[in-house]
TrEMBL record:
Lineage: Bacteria, Pseudomonadati, Pseudomonadota, Alphaproteobacteria, Sphingomonadales
Record Pfam families: DNA_pol3_delta2 (PF13177)
Highest taxon in the source lineage: Bacteria
Species of the source: Erythrobacter ani
InterPro entries given in the database record: DNA_Rep/Repair_Clamp_Loader
Name of the protein described by the UniProt record: DNA polymerase III subunit delta
Amino acid sequence: MIDWRNHDTAWSEWRRAMEGDRMHHGWILAGKSGLGKRDFAVAAARELVMEPGVHQPEREHPDILTLTHLPKDEKEEKKRDEGKPFQTKRNISVAQIRAMQKRLTTRPTLGARRAIIIDPADDMEPGASNALLKSLEEPPQGTFFMLVTHRPSRLLATIRSRCRVLRFPTLSDDELRRMLDETGGAKDSAARDAAIRAAEGSFGAAMRFMDQDMGPLADLIERLIIDGDPAFAARGELARVIGPRADRDRIQAVLELAQAIVAEHARQAGAPEQAKPLIDAHGELVALAGQAPTYNFDTGLLAMGIGTLLSSASAASEPANG
């Protein structure tokens, strides 16, 4: 079990609300990806539905419903059932919300309360968001909603207005280092430090960078930003290291790593004119990361596009004066 060092404030607010006379029925758990919001939601939901003297199952709880991405198709569903890694659908569908709402017409199984966790809520398709809004407007007695979100602005304003927000802060570099050491995620100190630098306070991102062996990519990204790439050699190397058949997770990790390193260079820029191309490149990378999950990019072309964005932000790419 991970010891999340950034959850203390959220726990204080949650437990204070539970002790009150009228606990709010809708909660948004907000913060960047990889901060343990899902773990908090599950643990908080168990506290919520627990009643003295009533046995609580250790695993699946009948009064805690979790809605998340389903397997992409029957083949991926079979992989899930076998405990293997599987690909998921891109959105949480209206059918999932309506199936959950049917469950709400019955009483909770073990006590007086039921918790609904939607993770990530910002991936609900429009019909699902509209359907959920009806339940938030007229919540069944004893039902509480916990919406895990990495980008709260993607939720409908009407959903946000009906929920109380718990915010989860990012982790310090020292906290990330301790967590990686404690969980056995830091087999190599150099790779660990590179992952921490790129993760920008997200333990999940740090673990993902470690799993994806992002050290060589970090070096290439640095080279493109500092030296540019007039001969296109670094861009070709970037495409090779990313891999010709990189899956969606690796592409997303590459884009997140590039964003983090560009942002770091922008913060360290000595003058506005030096920061501007880095800020522009960062914006383009963010847009590309938003498109990547829903577009079928050619991996080689995508890698070249990322390399071009990075090299265009390099001071070495600017024409000399005079």
